Amino acid sequence: MGASPDSLLTRLNRRLHSYTLLPLSFRLRYGKLGKYLAYSCYVPGWMFEHNSVALAQAAYDLADDATILEIGSFVGKSAILLAGARKLRGSGKVHCVDPFDASGDPFSVPFYQRVAKRRQMPLIDWFKENMRWCGLTDWVEVYQGTALEISPSWSLPLDMLCLDGDQSPLGARAAYDAYIPFLKTGGIITLKNTSDRVYDEGHDGNRRLAVETIVEPQYTDIRSVNDMTFARKAF
Ligand SMILES: C[S@@+](CC[C@H](N)C(=O)[O-])C[C@H]1O[C@@H](n2cnc3c(N)ncnc32)[C@H](O)[C@@H]1O
Predict the structure, then answer these.
(1) Residue nearest to atom 18 of ligand 1 (CA)
(2) In angstroms, rounded to a whole number, what is the distance separating the alpha carbons of residues 153 and 135?
(3) For the chain, what is the domain count?
(4) Cα(234) to centroid of ligand 1, in Å?
(5) How far, in Å, from the CA of 135 to the mean position of ligand 1?
(6) What residues make up the domain containing 133?
(7) Which CATH number goes with the domain that contains 77?
(8) Domain annotation covers residue 226
(9) Angle at 227 (CA atoms; ends 79, 112), nearest 5 degrees
(10) Cα of 212 vs its chain's centroid, Å
């Protein structure tokens, strides 16, 4: 990802493309979710095709009126998948918590900052623009702040909790501890960045959670898709 801002022409071209060719090919492969998988492709972030499909499908499979909380939304690549899936289902809400200031664990910050420089606008406005562009504004609720700044006022029971914020061991654990009491029994947890690989120092928070905490018997249906872990809270 380059650091120069995208030109108007690039953005127009991307938009034209995203409304036509890519959605068509993704729809052929993934059915109705394909439209949002295609939109998500045009948004910078760190999702791969297979975990995008799995994330969108998991959100789609939740019950009516599902409440989803995403910690770490950046400019909305994964939020588009979650909210698009709920829009297709016709009910539910995706709550997105992020400081929207490119902050985080020391390893990740330069990557966030590099992407942030591509647009001359605050990250929160970029996030909202992406939601508008996908017709998803009414399906998301935005909270500007860290996981721990927002958690004291959190009260909603969750059908799905997606952890992709601070990737440090302390930060990842703190977000998990703060929100896991709200995940319903039978609810789905997803953690990004959990594959079995060598991690840069201080960047293995979700990996540690997946190995140490997302285990039976507290969780069932535990599976990995690319660098993501999915599991169901058993009790
Ligand atoms: C890896 S990015 C999220 C990517 C996003 N899920 C996507 O698919 O594009 C992590 C995001 O979490 C944010 N973040 C960092 N620390 C956080 C914290 N303590 N609470 C919530 N979000 C945090 C970062 O600023 C960044 O926007």
Answers:
(1) 146
(2) 28
(3) 1
(4) 27
(5) 22
(6) 48-233
(7) 3.40.50.150
(8) yes
(9) 55
(10) 22
5 falls within a domain? no
Who lines ligand 1 at CB under 6 A? 45-47, 71-74, 77-78, 97-99, 102-104, 112, 146-147, 164-166, 171
- Residue 188: other Cβ atoms inside 10 A: 24
105-114 core/surface letters (b: 16 or more CB in 10 A; e: else): beebeeebee
Helix (H, G, I), strand (E, B) or coil at 114: helix
Closest CA to 76 of 104, 44, 109, 33: 44
Is 96 inside a domain boundary?
A: yes
From the number of C-beta atoms within 10 Å of its C-beta (0-12, 13-18, 19+), residue 90 rates as exposed
Q: Whose CA is nearest to atom 5 of ligand 1?
A: 73
Residue 28: which pLDDT band, with cuts at 50, 70 and 90?
A: confident
User: Distance from the CA of 147 to the center of ligand 1, in angstroms?
Assistant: 9
- Rounded CA-CA distance 141/10 in Å is 29
Element spanning 223, H or E: strand 219-225
Would the pTM count as exceeding 0.85? yes
pLDDT digits (tens, 9 = 90+) for 148-194: 999 999 999 999 999 999 999 999 999 999 999 999 999 999 999 99
In a domain, 20, yes or no: no
Query: Torsion angle of alpha carbons 43, 45, 51, 53, nearest 10°?
Result: -10
| Cα 28 to middle of ligand 1, angstroms | 31
